Amino acid sequence: MSTDVGTAAAPRATRREWLGLAVLALPTMLIAMDLTVLHLALPALTADLRPSNAELLWIVDIYGFLTAGFLITMGAIGDRIGRRRLLMIGAFAFGVASVLSAFAVNAAMLIAARALLGLAGATLMPSTLSLIRIMFTDPKQRGAAIGAWTGFFGLGTVIGPLVGGTFLELFQWGSVFLLGVPIMLLLIGFGPIVLPEYRDESVSRPDFISAIMSIVGVLALIFGLKRIAEDGLRPESGIAIVAGLALGALFISRQRRIEQPLVDLSLFQNKLFGSALGMLVLGTLISGGSQFFVLQYLQLVCELSPIEAGLWSMPTTIAVMIGAMGAPAPASRMQLSTLLAGGLVVAALGMVVLAQLSGPSGLYVAVIGAAVIGLGLGPMISLGTGLIVGAAPPERAGAASAIASTGTDLGASMGIAVIGSIGFVVYRANLTGKLPEGLPDAVVKTAEDTLAAAVDAARTLPVGDGARLLSVAREAFVYGLQATAVVGAVLAALLAVAAVILLRDARMPAPPSPAETDDQMNLFREGT
Asked: Which end of the chain is more exposed for a tag (fewer CB within 10 A), N or C?
């Protein structure tokens, strides 16, 4: 039956398609849960694996970097070998990487396993959404299906802290990674039965050279920043940063030369597209960096259990959802730049609240500050992608959507890497000369790595020495959190000014008519 609504009605989905939607929603929920459960597990895995502060940052954000770096490439591979086949391969790899992560015996093994998780994760998101658009050709049913898919992502965000906290309360830290194994087994078992296959062999082969250049360039830049955080400015950190910037320049040059670039640079000729994308990346950078420190504060300074920390993080999750889901309504009645700038000002105020923390007694301050940040950033997160896609020409809407997804993942990981490095520099600086005298050199070195390592080391000391070490280390961590809050507040305020200036003529794109929906499905296939 034709899917051209001008000649015939689009076929309606059957029970098989709805069962397929349920199967596709599972990995979506898992990815959302994974964003929160790892942060809750950081104190426990740090006590077990003893990573340095640089290794700890790699454990957290290597997943996001590789997912962002290979999202577009994996989408192109899926078009050639089949979306369902790529999804099955990715699900198997994700399950294997989850097991390797759960039973990692050292920081290097966990970093490698998390890298594999990132590669596998890059196959899941584009494949799931693309298959949904193929399975549901009726516009109303497709809208309901995408809404349900989005709802499961939100559900994963909400239940992640609760499920992760419960598992950490009952089992060892590796259990949070095993959550993904049964979900991936269900996907592998039922996917071939209820999911269709889709491939487009006319799509050109993805440019792996560009993908590798972009990933290596970003990782080299972040490696240099983390080495500065760990050991100060040294030749190797400078070389890494210069190499990263050089690879970035070569990447851009290559995209301009080749016929089928990995990133369509012509999209950036539209000022609105580049401005909106840059603000979305920086907005998620603020969010990722603040969440990284707040969850550690709840467990390591306030001494909450994992499940208690999960419960106290719920106000932030709810606030983000309120800000994101509530933004579209006023966006149709007021100037978009004013709405986004107002949200960023609210986020800056939340950062100012976080900067007031003064020790373990600041539980309510931390929770309120984090929730206000989430509420303020919600509109940017929800409206940003729509603004980016709306700024692109209709024939490049799919490519713009893929770039927006990549930017969001990259921004969250950059937040942990960059803001996390700033926080650790301040933490270490505030330990210098303040640790109790007579501590073994090994304990001093351990305490300088991370607060979680300092808490673990304090348990091996006499009660008095351990208490003094904890007091100094927690105070230093709070100083680090305050510094990151100040940086975040300044960045959010600057973004608010940028929103007023750069987005003053921006308007949200009108929703597509039913006649345009099938064309948009083809655009999505092209772009992802």
From this structure: N
